Amino acid sequence: MERSLTHIALFAALIAVLGLVPRVDLAAGVPITAQSLGIMLCGTVLGAKRGALAVLLFLLLVALGLPLLSGGRGGLGVFVGPSAGFLIGFPVAAFVAGWVMERTTLPAFWAAAAGAVIGGIGVLYVFGITGMAIVLDKTMSEAALLGLAFLPGDVIKAVVAGLVTQAIARARPAALLARA
């Protein structure tokens, strides 16, 4: 139990640290950040439940006003802005990435990359694009077109998540809780 809580807190901090990487703002008001890599890693390293809990802890801290999102944003207002759908989808994305990682017998890189693509891109885009459509008063097609700007970077992040997860599996197999 103590070990799980430590890992959950550590990965919530990792997501926050990835917010320090300078963001790139899109015209739609949703920034491109490194934090989605943290979401992917929460699932691929910690597994479905712990990964989702780490993200929920991070979002709780953001909701309380800590400026942990890229650009130093925080507070309840971020949950009604253009990126609200992505934020709401973060824990679900981490859960799905972890679920894929836990249930496949593929080598760590391929399992993590698949989990990151399915959860960290596919599931997250469903929430994010829906949120953009609602907040920006766009059709789903228009919002999906806006969301395509994120795809190249997110594919790179999925590969990085696979490589990092594979490195952890090789160096410290017991630390890969998604496979424990």
- Broad shape: globular
Can you tell me the number of structural domains? 1
How many strands appear in the DSSP assignment? 2
The secondary-structure element order is HEEHHHHHH
Class by alpha and beta content: mainly alpha
Show unreliable segments: none
- Summed over residues and divided by their number, the pLDDT gives a mean of 94
Largest sheet: 2 strands, antiparallel
Number of helices: 7
Radius of gyration: 15 Å
Quick rundown:
The chain is mostly helical.
Textual characterization of the structure:
It is found in: Cell membrane. One of its GO terms (molecular function) is biotin transmembrane transporter activity. The chain is mainly alpha-helical and 180 residues long. The protein has a single domain (2-178), classed as Arp2/3 complex 21 kDa subunit ARPC3, CATH 1.10.1760.20. 68% of the residues lie in helices and 2% in strands. The protein has 7 helices and 2 strands. The chain has helices at residues 2-18, 35-46, 48-63, 84-103, 108-135, 140-147, 151-171; strands spanning 24-25, 31-32. A two-stranded antiparallel ribbon has the order 1-2. Helix 1 (2-18) runs antiparallel to helix 2 (35-46), helix 3 (48-63) runs antiparallel to helix 4 (84-103) and helix 5 crosses helix 6. The longest helix has 28 residues, at 108-135. It is globular and about 45 Å long. 48% of the residues are buried. The mean pLDDT is 94.
Topology readout:
Layout: H1 2-18, E1 24-25, E2 31-32, H2 35-46, H3 48-63, H4 84-103, H5 108-135, H6 140-147, H7 151-171
Antiparallel strand pairs: 1-2
Helix pairs in contact: 1-2, 1-3, 2-3, 2-4, 2-5, 2-7, 3-4, 4-5, 5-6, 5-7
